[in-house]
Amino acid sequence: MADDQPDNQDNAQGGVIVPRGGWWMGSSSSMFQEQLAADIYLQDIWQTAGYVQRVATICVSWGMSVAVMEEAHAPVAGSPGPWHIANYRLQQIIVRDFGQQHLLVPGAPLVLPGAQPPGLGIFLINGQHTMAHRLPWHHRLILEVSDPNGEPIALHYHKHKPRKGHDMMVAPKLMDQNDPKRKHWIFKQV
């Protein structure tokens, strides 16, 4: 869910600003080990050439995902890649935890086995030891990205195509810029 913008007016970049109450984005999920979801960008991907960044979440085990910053070079706007983890930008991600949320599903465990609290940890991702922010499942979390002065910056959701299969470390493809189902939403916290 995206949140924390004043109204839902289109902005100059063609994205829709998400209202303060938030919207459910329907972003791609990841529930298998090393499955990647990466549809939150720090720039409008269709308007930005040069270095671009995105927040990626990666499932590291049942009940735990992590957030990392990735970056890529886009020789022209809309065509970035290949993406790589940018550990030097990790301090820009801010995660706040409001505690475990009950699922209200009969028989569902209140606490997932082996659950760890949010915070930084070192994980084996794509064969490399990587520092990342823990995002335990069933917790109410808020994720923001800050500028060098610590102020939250605008994030951009760009809709991706539906996931096909359980590929490891492969995000679903970005929808084509001219696809009528394409979405671009702007917000400050997820």
Please describe what this structure looks like.
The protein is mainly β. It has strands at residues 16-17, 36-41, 50-61, 64-74, 84-85, 93-100, 119-125, 128-136, 139-145, 155-158, 184-187. The strands form two sheets. Strands 1, 2, 3, 4, 5, 7, 8, 10 and 11 form a nine-stranded mixed beta sheet that branches. Strand 2 (36-41) and strand 3 form a beta hairpin. The radius of gyration is 16 Å and the shape is globular.
In short:
This protein is mainly beta. It has no helices and 11 strands. The strands form 2 sheets. Strands 1, 2, 3, 4, 5, 7, 8, 10 and 11 form a 9-stranded mixed sheet that branches. A two-stranded antiparallel sheet has the order 6-9.
Summarize the topology.
Elements: E1 16-17, E2 36-41, E3 50-61, E4 64-74, E5 84-85, E6 93-100, E7 119-125, E8 128-136, E9 139-145, E10 155-158, E11 184-187
Parallel strand pairs: 1-11
Antiparallel strand pairs: 2-3, 2-10, 3-4, 4-5, 4-8, 6-9, 7-8, 10-11
What profile does the largest beta sheet have? 9 strands, mixed
Q: Strand content of the residues, in percent?
A: 35-45%
Shape: globular
Please write the string of helix (H) and strand (E) elements: EEEEEEEEEEE
Helix content: under 10%
Radius of gyration over all CA atoms, rounded: 16 Å
Tell me the number of helical segments per DSSP (H or I, 4 or more residues long).
0
Number of strands: 11
Q: What are the segments in which pLDDT stays under 50 over at least 5 consecutive residues?
A: 3-13
